[in-house]
Amino acid sequence: MGLMRKIVRTGRVAEPAPALDAPGSASAGQGSVGPWRTGSVQLRHVDAGSCNGCELEITSAFGPVYDAERYGVRLVASPRHADALLVTGPVTHNMADPLRKAYEAMPAPKGVIAVGDCARNCGVFAGGHGVAGSVRDVLPVDLEVPGCPPEPAVLIAALRGLAGR
Amino acid sequence: MTVIAAGLLIVALAAAAGALGGACAPARIRALLAGLLTALSGAGGITAGVAALSGQSWSMRLPHLLPLGSAELSVDPLSGAFLVIIGAVAVAAGVYSVGYTAPGGSHPTDDIEPAHETVPDAGGAASRTCQATLPLFVASMLLVPAAASVTTLLLTWELMALSSLVLVLADHRSRGSVRDAALWYAGMTHAGLAAILVGLVLFAGGTGGESFVSLREGADTLSPGLRSAVFVLTFLGFGSKAGMVPLHVWLPRAHAESPSHVSALMSAAMVNLGVYGVVRVAFDLLGGGPRWWGVLVLAFGCLSATYGVLQATVATDLKRLLGYSTSENVGLMLIGIGAAGIFAADGNRPLAGLLLAAAVLHAANHAAFKALLFLGAGSVLRATGLRDLDRLGGLAARMPATTAMFGFAALAAAALPPGNGFVSEWLLLQGLIHSLTLGGTPSVIVAVSMPLAVAVVALTAGLGAAAFVKAFAVGFLARPRSDAAASASEGPWPMRAAMASMLLVCLTLGLAPALAGAPLTRILAMLPTVRDGAPLAGSGVTLHLAGIAGSMSPLLIAAGLLGVAAVVVALVRSVGARRPRRVALVWGCGGTRLDPRMEYTATSFAEPLMRVFDDVLRPEHDVTVTPYAESRYLVESVQFRQRVPDRVEARIYPPLLAAAAWWGDRSRAVANGSVHRYLAYGFFGFVAVLIVVGFTA
Amino acid sequence: MTDHGVTIGSVAAALLQLVLLAAGAPYLIGMMRQVRARLEGRVGAGIGQPWRDLRKQLRKEPMRPDGTSWVFAGAPRVLLASTVLVAVVAPLLSTVSPLAGAADIFAVVSLLLLGTVALAVAGVDTGTAFGGMGASRAMTVAALAEPTILLAGFALSSRVGSSNLADIVAGTLVMPATVLSPASLLAAVAFAVVVVAETGRLPVDNPATHLELTMIHEAMVLEYAGPDLALVELAAGMRLTVLLGLGASLFLPWGIATSAAPLSLLGAAAVLVAKVAALGAILAAFEVFVAKWRLFRVPELLAGSFLFGLLAVSASFFLA
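YS: structure for the whole thing
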């Protein structure tokens, strides 16, 4: 019963949804190619060598406060179920091949989202001995979300652009 | 000459010719000759059986054929049903043996590491002895239900036991486990024979005649104690042949170790004769009995069904799994027979009839799908030399026909629609359900035993599904888990043809079970305590129960499934994007290509259920950890071995065997090898007999 | 006894029921997710989200993992076909059924198990460790849930002397007091546990998990993509809806049409939607309060429900 009281007392913690940005604002480049604007986006998250800063922000974006799921965006367990890869971090040598395999494993139409500055241009890890390059060097990237790490609000704005909601 | 006589004549002549051909013909045509004549013998059995089921009857007396009594044969509808079952399995097994014994197959030579020790020859089943014995085995099985006197029954029964023993021993040269299995089989079958012999001799002694006719007439004059003694002895004897737990110990061994067409014959045909014997003696010759007979049969049925299905669930040897599943299915038949006995004793004919019909129908269904399963397992064994499910897999691409047919049989064995096992299990459940409404106020025995019986049937349904998902999915699907499985290919076409014929039987029984209505009614009409309860009626499409509200149409379900599936496929085509199906690497979480060793095996598949039933099964685990010489904290290798010993066997049999050995040791003092002493024994024994006779006469 | 037979009315009733279940199942899932979201302080994706997901998955590319056989592509179709067949024959809207021959409780249970088996076989066929693991776990749960549901069905059907679902429901409608009989109450408890287990809800399975090692249902379908996945998800939703509807019909049968008159059918449809929605909401709210159990605690739950089923059967005999 303690939990019940807590539920009643807490109520809704999700913040009100901001207005939907004009489509394409988050540099959604080849938006027409991917599985976009169906009101449903399933994401498979791949950490290609991230410092886990972006992961924290992603977790928070899918948490109750930002509640990314309300826009029809969901994280899934298998690339077979996914529409897009959510890639964080610079692509390390060890993760380049698994990343390609994860992309291969997705059914068409499919896309890639590079989250965070490291994924876009290797960030502070640029030139590191274990780094193979940015995500764009390995896979065709459809959407880039800037920030180190990107704030949940930015992430959500980008994801809403994909979902169209 | 009637059709039945003609059929039985074909049985005998074809078997004799087959035995002759198997023994004398050159190796090239030996298999063909023996196999086809075996099939012909089976066809003769089907002919006679169908004629008997359609209402004809026939009997014959050959006065001087046997030294102590006359050979009597008679075929009534009950015999007819089992003639058809055995005949059909024999046809399939005979045709199958032509391909199975052809050169080119792999046969395991050593039990422990079969994958490395396969020899590409025809195996022991192709030997002259086995080829000659196969038709004899079939003929003796077909004569058992036709036997109409105690002597004839015992003679054919023993002939059947001996010929099957020879066949079990087919591969005795290459594998020690075969000899072990044959020893168990020989021991158990003869212990069973002794029980039947004593029981029937008591019966015949009490009635003053040994033909079934006089037994039937005199059964009522026996004292209740003698009647019960006859019933219990014959029940145990026939039950041991049927693979009833705890008398089942020979079954998983013999069925696993014999050539696969022999396994099919034993599991699908011979085991049913045990069931036949119980029905024949209890319901026909003794004319029914008190309620506790039924309770006894029901209890053994529940035990067999539960224990059999549990062992099948955790078994990793494909043929052993099928063997335990035979025990399970016999258990289900015994549940039907036992419940029928209880209701017959209560005078509730419709229910008794329904349950007995369910048991007989299940015998037929079980024969059809189990024969198909064993033949499928035999094809796999021949192609890979493997019975171990943990090393199989990937056969769907390499042996597509076998895979599809085994899959359907597994569906039937799991009692799922549209398989035929579902129909008889449904009928059994119907009988149990209506025990409340049709039985009036239930007696305490009914109120206690029926819920338990239902629980057992329900449990076997669930666990059976798990066992056969394991057998089919792990054995045939995914990627091959060994090189032998990877290089498998379909065997000669007679094997597939034989399996297809059994598939056809499964489909017929599964989709149009109402065909069995009239024959089953005829069987019930000849049993005094259950007659008048017409169980199955109606068109060929729907299964109706006369006098009972309940109908089910397997054909409708199958058609519905097919129709809906077609609609689903069409809808997906029209709604979907019609993109072509892309073949991609299995998703291995981004790692390298998944190794077949990473796949789930039969052992791992059954592990959760093994844990759940830990207290019953008591698996034995050995973990051997070998550390490096430098430090005992660095592990070089870990060996894990798991064995699920047969608990019933381990508990009951060692004391019995020890007692037998002790008895043997005692008698050694009496038999010290001195001929004088033996002659003295003879003399004093004879004198003792004379004295006894002199005083009693 | 109810009248069975193929009439225009009964066919219309069956079709209406099928359309209602097929169209409503994703909404039920959406509604349950919405209830959870609200209780967790979130907004939720709206009850239409599962339909949006399905529509999108249908337009995607089907895939076949290397090394799999026809079983892999066939399983979702068999799963959906068996579910649809159950959705047609089960007496959820009315007790008149055009396919009385298949509306048997044992047939329905076996058809549902057939779907489970198809998916489990396909799970092993993928050849991945996760697929096999999911299949093994699903069969373990099914092997224990199946006997329970058979026992519950037995307890209910032995009372009316028929295992025909429509007869059972009609029998309860005639004698409403039987709902409160010990047999019926015990069977209801057993049935509820089975519904939770068979449809992969908490605490048996977590329908929202991303962790492969904790999965049962999800682990078997990890390899499915596009239309195949859509079929599996739709079938899973329909199974939940059918089982909830069946529970409502067997234990709370009021509002079910006993004829095929259009008005009574529409009324029954409204009642059915309300009942299933209420049951779904209760189930979803219950899920907020429990955590997923360890896999090996699940058999304890199922063994408990098996015992309840056995008690129900015994009660129906002793307290007849």
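YS: worth flagging: The longest strand of chain C covers residues 63-65.
IM: good catch. Also Chain C touches chain A at residues 37-46, 49, 52-53, 55-56, 60-63, 209-212, 215, 218, 222-226, 229, 288-289 (CB under 8 Å).
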